[in-house]
């Protein structure tokens, strides 16, 4: 299954209320960023990165929580269960899912050093990724919109960290020039 098929198969369209809430959040964030840039608290690139992060996280939350059809409460509480099954059963679909979970928050990690305008320590990026993923996972558990699992939090956190490490290379070089 390609990304487009996954997207259209597992995600319903946003409701009017979801769109209205997202537009409201965007108006609020745009206003705050405009004030911060005007008062010279942030550079335009930082404010733009914040807006990009909010849009990105809106899409991520929309596709992982809010637009999914509710089912029954599902959870897997054993850490690294997916890797056990990949090794034991040669489950390549599960391997692909783990890799996609690593990629999911990679863009958020890339934006962190741009927003901060300096290098971010790897463990801070890992923590941010795990925190964002924990909010997603607990939302899925509470609203019964997917499988709650520790593995997703670990993989999402690693992806955020990798994205941040990649962006740190350019932030370091930019600040040196």
Describe what you observe in this structure.
This protein is 77% helix and 3% strand. Strands 1-2 form a two-stranded parallel ribbon. The chain has helices at residues 3-10, 16-38, 44-66, 81-89, 92-104, 106-116, 122-143, 150-176, and strands at residues 74-76, 147-149. The model has no long low-confidence stretch (mean pLDDT 91). The protein contains eight helices and two strands. With 177 residues, the chain is mainly α. The protein is globular and about 55 Å long. Helix 5 (92-104) crosses helix 8 (150-176) and helix 6 (106-116) runs parallel beside helix 8.
Strand content: under 5%
Largest beta-sheet characterization: 2 strands, parallel
Q: Determine the N-to-C terminus distance.
A: 44 Å
Structural class: mainly alpha
Mean pLDDT: 91
User: Can you tell me the residue ranges where pLDDT is under 50 for at least 5 consecutive residues?
Assistant: none
* Count of helical regions: 8
The radius of gyration over CA amounts to: 18 Å
Order of helices and strands: HHHEHHHHEH
Task: Report the principal-axis shape.
Answer: globular
Helix coverage percent: over 70%
Strand order of the largest sheet: 1-2
Q: Count the E strands.
A: 2
Condensed summary:
The chain is mostly helical and 177 residues long. The protein has helices at residues 3-10, 16-38, 44-66, 81-89, 92-104, 106-116, 122-143, 150-176; strands spanning 74-76, 147-149. α3 runs antiparallel to α6 (106-116), α4 packs antiparallel against α5 (92-104) and α7 (122-143) packs antiparallel against α8 (150-176).
